[in-house]
Amino acid sequence: MFKVVLIKGDGIGPEISDAVVEIFDAAKVPIQWIEKKAGLNAIDIAPNGIPDDTLEAIKTYQVALKGPTTTPVGSGHKSVNVTLRKALELYANVRPAKSLPGVRSRFDNVDLIIIRENIEDTYGGIEHHQTSDVAQCLKLITRPGSIRIAKYAFEMAKLYGRKKVLAVHKANIHKITDGLFLKCFYEVAQEYPEIQASDLIVDNTCMQLVVHPERFDVLVLPNLYGDIVSDLCAGLVGGLGVAPGGNIGDSVAIFEAVHGSAPDIAGQGIANPTALLLSSFQMLQHIGLHKTKQRIENALIQTLKDGIATRDLGGNENTKEFVSAIIKRLEPPFENEFIEPAPLRIKSELLKTHKDVVEYCHGVDIFVENPTGVPNMPQQVGKLKLKMISNRGTKVFPGPQPNIWLVDHHRCRYIATDEDDNFINIGDDEIFNLIREVSASGIKWMHIEKLQLFDGEIGYSKAQGE
What is the pLDDT of residue 398? Predict the structure, then answer.
């Protein structure tokens, strides 16, 4: 008997969760459901919507199936999904997109898998107001996070017999952050010579996906791009109503419908359980019941082929009628179907991700507030010389000032060089002296960023800075 935590969620969550449980019961799947709460109906006992006993149950049983939960926009509690991913280190978001018979879409030959890094990027939620006019969000891409998700993508491709893994990025613009993600991808790719590794810029990827989706196989992306592209791929096969998803870590996995809680149709008996059912197929593979997954999937596919579907998929059936049709088409269990399960669990088995390197600080970006135009910054303080001032990424000093709308937030880059214009190492005292000089000049500064060079790896090049 397999024990699985069941989180029904809110809105239509309880209805579609009950539908999956009914189908599993009819299929005689040996699962004991451990029902726990999360979402709006748990706010009264946990501010973030996740009671302690729910979190502990997931840690104990290591597998959960989760219905949709409502997240307030702009205020209120933090997303339950995001909280679970971070609290349980569910670093891989796996979103298959596969064409289904009878489901109307522009394509009928889509079969791809999106693997999205699930922890870092802008989803770290590190945001600040710099000035009254400027807000900042930090995009964090790490070597450990990038190595781990690339490793997972290649391991999954290997297990499922996939031939190609594509890294999706914007390293032409985000040269350092996405550049690190891409570098780690190709570092891992060397361990899998039998799998074709390539990369594509994210905007071109989106265009190619809606023109030739059949050319794609496995895609691995940083968090933000992965969020957007996975929903785009759901649109290729009929929408979020047929989009499964799994959030997977080394020891814990949560499988969920990725659509919203649809409170406007809750309780009407018309909700479509297909996405959660497809997510449960991922769960069955994860725990090793591959024959069971295939048997229930065959019943779903035959139901759709017969033109039986809920209204959002173009059919006329309500939830109960759709579930009954699937159950009617279930074959009895195969012989020895539940004996010796073969779990498809991928351990990240991290490569040595930290490199011991010598760090050199050769300059600093100091961000200042000046609402009346380009600030009059000190030209040199000690070894540090003013090389550039930019406004929203556009250089406004030195040289002719471009005709742009200046905001009150300026980046001022100071570099330390010798007589031959080679970078030289500086200490914190040089930076402290610069800050004191800027403050004494009556200029308000917000924060600084050290500019680092690494022995053997360059984190910033002169060409990029100037």
Answer: 93
pLDDT mean by block of 10 residues, the chain; 466 residues = 93 95 97 85 63 91 92 54 85 95 90 95 89 92 93 92 97 96 96 97 97 96 97 95 93 92 90 96 94 96 95 93 97 86 71 69 95 94 95 91 89 92 91 96 94 62 38
pLDDT at 353: 62
* Residues 6 or more apart whose Cβ sits within 8 Å of residue 14: 8, 67
The CA dihedral of 71, 76, 81, 85, to the nearest 10 degrees, is: 160
Query: What CATH number has the domain spanning 111-236?
Result: 3.40.718.10
For the chain, give every residue range classified as CATH 3.40.718.10: 1-105+237-342, 111-236
Superfamily of domain 1-105+237-342: Isopropylmalate Dehydrogenase (3.40.718.10)
Place of tokens 């799947």: 29
What pLDDT does 44 receive? 60
User: Are 438 and 378 contacting, i.e. CB atoms less than 8 angstroms apart?
Assistant: yes
Parts of the chain belonging to CATH 3.30.70.1570: 359-465
- Tokens representing 277 are 């059912």
Closest listed residue to residue 95, CA positions, set 260, 271, 237, 299? 237
Say how far apart CA 246 and CA 255 lie, in whole Å.
Answer: 4
CATH 3.30.70.1570 applies to domain 359-465: yes
Report yes or no: 412 and 386 within 8 Å, Cβ to Cβ.
yes
